[in-house]
Each structure stands twice: as C-alpha cells, then as structure tokens.
Amino acid sequence: MNKFLVFSITLFLVAEVTSSAAVYKGQSVFVKECKECHDSGQAMAASKKAKEWKRLLSDDGDELASIHTSSRKAKDSWEYFKSDRFTSKAKHLKDFMMEYSKDSGKVPACN
Ligand code: HEC
Questions:
Q1: Is 78 near ligand 1, meaning CB less than 6 Å away?
Q2: Alpha-carbon torsion 76, 60, 101, 19, what sign?
Q3: Does ligand 1 lie within 6 Å of residue 71's CB atom?
Q4: Interval 89-104: pLDDT, tens
Q5: Which residues contact 78 (CB under 8 A, 6 or more apart)?
C-alpha cells in the first residue's frame, strides 16, 4: 500500500472516532440535563430537521436557551440555560441532535 493511502485511511478513522465521540458527549449531556423534563433524546432529535437543530444550537445554544428562559413552565431550567454548563456543551448537543435528526435517516444503536 502506498504511504498516501495509509495516511488517508488513518485520517478518515481519526475523524470518524472524533465525531462519534462528540455525538456521544451530546447524548450524555441530554441524559444529565434535559431528561428530567423531556423523555427521550432520540425522539426529540428526530422531531426536528438537522437545519433546525443547527439554528437552535448555534451561538452557544442561544436560541434554545431563550425558548426556555422565556417560558414559565421551564422555570426550573433557567439557571442551567444561563450557565456555562450549558453554553460550553451546546456544541456537543448540536452534534447529537443533528446526527439523529428527522432527515438523517439514522436510528440509534440499542446500546
Ligand atoms: C425544567 C424543565 C426543562 C429542562 C431541564 C429542559 N427543558 Fe426543554 N422545554 C421545557 C418546556 C416547559 C418547554 C416548552 C416551552 C414553551 O413552549 O413554553 C421546552 C421546550 C423545548 C424545546 C422546543 C420544543 C419545540 O417543539 O420546538 C426544545 C427543542 C427543548 N425544550 C430542548 C431541550 C434540551 C435539549 C434540553 C437540555 C439541554 C432541555 N430542553 C431542558 C422544559 C425543560
């Protein structure tokens, strides 16, 4: 095998592992921070298109945060959405939501 091919394959594998790690991180953020009010992360991800998730969770999740901070029903989440516990993880959440969005065609593995 020539060196360039080996190099390309290595890069591809590294990229794959890195991106599934981000998706996994996003999923664990959901379980830890969102599950008390929203049932299933995967069902939620599949309720919107990738483009909508991208919008909601860009700029440190600004738009998703304001949906919550402007709703009385979501009062218990206000402190969280204003904290950097949320803003610093919004990117991972975005990766997770986009990975399993309505138009991704992906169904999460049962593990
Ligand atoms: C304390 C409870 C609570 C927590 C924690 C919470 N949410 Fe929510 N969320 C709500 C409520 C209540 C609404 C509905 C707001 C409204 O429309 O008045 C909502 C709305 C939403 C919506 C909009 C739904 C739609 O149909 O457009 C999304 C998306 C969402 N939440 C995602 C999340 C994510 C992701 C997290 C975790 C980072 C989270 N929520 C954490 C209570 C919560």
A1: no
A2: negative
A3: yes
A4: 999 999 999 999 999 8
A5: 68, 69
